[in-house]
Amino acid sequence: MSLLVDIASLLTAESNIYYGDLPDQPDSLIALYLTGGFDSTHTLGVQAPSNENPTLQIRIRDSSFATGLARAEAIKDVLDGKTSTTINSNNYISIFMIGDINQLARDSWNRANFTLNFQIKVKRG
């Protein structure tokens, strides 16, 4: 879970952050999910991977469409294109957004939902 905690620590303007869970309440929240990723990068002659390439999805839910979209845009601004960053002793080489903000259908309580997807490269070892 350290990847989720690390990324959440960059989202200082956000509250109600959940990891791998989307509870019914509160109406306004963000949820971070591990979504697999890509093959690790190995250096010749080294058994353990030198870089890992996970992916992450962030889901934003809000009772207001405009507020939810603004929060998604703010998260995009914070994370997309971040390079050479150390978070909680982990060396993040890059964080890049995959695609753009996705608008999902409103849920059964008429709350707006958005997702953002990120490809991350983190140095191990």
Cα distance spanning the termini: 18 Å
**CATH level-four homologous superfamily name:** Phage tail protein-like
CATH classification class: Alpha Beta
Nearest-integer average pLDDT: 92
Question: How is the CATH topology named?
Answer: STM4215-like
Rg result:
15 Å
Poorly predicted regions are: none
Largest sheet composition: 6 strands, mixed
Structural class: alpha+beta
Q: Per DSSP, what share of the residues sits in E-state strands of 2 or more residues? A: over 45%
> What order do the helices and strands follow?
HEEEHEEE
Helix count, DSSP H or I runs of 4 or more residues = 2
* Total DSSP E strands: 6
Strand order within the widest sheet? 1-2-3-6-5-4
Count the domains: 1
Helix content: 10-25%
Q: What's the overall geometry? A: elongated
CATH architectural name: 2-Layer Sandwich
Summarize the structure in words.
The chain is α+β, with helices and mostly antiparallel strands and 125 residues long. It has a single domain, classed as STM4215-like (2-Layer Sandwich). 19% of the residues lie in helices and 49% in strands. Strands 1-2-3-6-5-4 form a 6-stranded mixed β-sheet. A hairpin with a 7-residue loop joins β5 (90-104) and β6 (112-123). The two termini are 18 Å apart. 17% of the residues are buried.
